[in-house]
Amino acid sequence: MAYAQIYSKWQADPEGYWLDAAGAIDWEVKPTRALNADRAPLYEWFTEAMGNTCWNALDRHVVAGRGTQAAIIHDSPVTGTKHVITYAELRDRVSRLAGALRLKGVVKGDRVIIYMPMVPEALEAMLACARLGAIHSVVFGGFAANELAVRIDDCTPKAIIAASCGIEPNRVVHYKPLLDAAIDMADHKPDFCVILQREQEVAKLVEGRDVAWHTFQFGVEPADCVPVEGNHPAYILYTSGTTGAPKGVVRPTAGHMVALMWTMRAIYNIGAGDVFWAASDVGWVVGHSYICYAPLLAGATTIVYEGKPVGTPDASAFWRVIAEHRVKSFFTAPTAIRAVKRDDPDGKLMGKFDLSHLQALFLAGERADPDTIEWAGRHLNVPVIDHWWQTETGYAIAANPLGLGLLPVKIGSPSVPMPGYDVQVLDEGGHPVAPGTLGAIAIKLPLPPGTLPGLWNAEERFRKSYLHHFPGYYETGDAGYVDEDGYLYIMARTDDVINVAGHRLSTGAMEEVLASHRDVAECAVIGVADSLKGQSPLGLLCLNKGVDRDPAEVVRECVALVRDRIGPVADFKRAVVVDRLPKTRSGKILRATMVKIADGQDWKMPATIDDPAILDEITQALRGLDLAGAKG
Ligand code: COA
Ligand code: AMP
Fold it and tell me: Strand, helix or coil at 443?
């Protein structure tokens, strides 16, 4: 069936639609009811069903005779290694790890933090939790100890599973000292830590608390899958909000399986035996959905790539992996393609590889600029499909569904809403606007299966962040418009979230760190245009009266402070000292106007500005910086 028919079918009978889709999953107790609106506007799906994600991702494929097929291919140019794990091997490894966790007292509902680089053991840890009904929370390796500590205190894990180190092209990332520091900082202490000792760095274990990965599992009885309720949290994934406190997005078990399974066929056109590659990191939602769960639910082969788009060893890395492992659908962030394009503008390196198995390139994580899409399409000669989604939804809100028959591509648009999503563009008063008019993008409630039912231990924050502003809708935090054909255009965020190299970051969190510097009286962080990373954070600092130190020294300390507190992933490298910040008469900092000045765009003097002269001072200060957007 084609997209329009499928979308109408969903509109006509949303519950019947998802009950049908649930038929693709193995259940212990089959769902008989799809939507649970008992606590509307808080919704659940498949509450009464019972099932297990690990069973559906592993055991069922082994039972169906796919045991010898590759489940994971680990391709690691940073360590110079590659290896394949079959479905049967993966099932055995995961059930042993789950058995060891169970022996140490981990049961359904317990939280387990996973802090690991791109190694298969990260997926094994996620799946072992799923096997027991334990709730994992994966923390990205580029975050500092402080961020890890915040997450430990929020989700109070019984155990932490970590690796001794990660490997960036320019350095070894010492995970274990970061983990130790985080546990010291946190009020909550895990009962135990399991440490995967890597060859590149063997970490010192804390006696009585830490146990090495292999020792932990030695001689242990493997664990079977524990069926859980449909609304049981499969995982918590923290994402940036407007403040320093990250939001713990909860993923419900049943809806997650049903929706991901649906997307593999309908959006990515992937089935059992195909090879799928999402070049992201398990620490992000793309990694959860499309490195770990969805490809395995579909019985496909997933690639765990421990490398970069460039520099490991060069801009041919992606094409080598695609050719060598016969990747059928490839998913990455536009920033990664921009990095490749910068190093190989004529796409010469692609020509060296047989890319004939590749059917499409999928892009998400940030706005895909037309240049990048055109460049990739021209050189790869396959459809380049932009699709739009968020950590909160776990899969695409809007896409061009390859598996249902590709719709005409409009460059600059992630195409059309997927079944389950009634997307509306609203004005400030919450009224739908005409096609072509910019507004806040909202989704009519209920959201479809698999999307967040709430935030971990923060129901009021969930209501306030997503449901209050436009009653009856979920507020996405994105602004944009719909055209006459129903294609969506995602233009900007409406909040203090910026997107740096496909990573979602909170300027509010960076401001909180800068404000803690002893010489900083007031500050603002804005996201300025960056030709490689999309956006890049820039700090504006007002110093305390009487501070007569070299401003460059304060800037250096502030840069180091953000790296130390949030982590290298914040990519906070630039700040400037100014006398005053531009504000409205009610005291709100005019960040959007400063972004326009920094990016060299036209801007209007805001009517509510307190003192117009300040914007001249800001313009002068920004001129002194090497800002990509302000050039020309
Ligand atoms: N562990 C520890 N540190 C990490 C890390 C990790 N897993 N990932 C990134 N970092 C560090 C980097 O080493 C870098 O540190 P540095 O300041 O010492 O150089 C810093 O965080 C910023 O990293 P990054 O944003 O990746 O910039 P980069 O200049 O190293 O690389 C790109 C630029 C475009 C190649 C890279 O950003 C990239 O591959 N982006 C794609 C992102 C992606 O797939 N996102 C997922 C959304 S789908
Ligand atoms: P994250 O939760 O990290 O996946 O970030 C989600 C945010 O990234 C969205 O709210 C958008 O602001 C942005 N984003 C993701 N995909 C796209 C896309 N295809 N086009 C434009 N913006 C996107």
Answer: strand
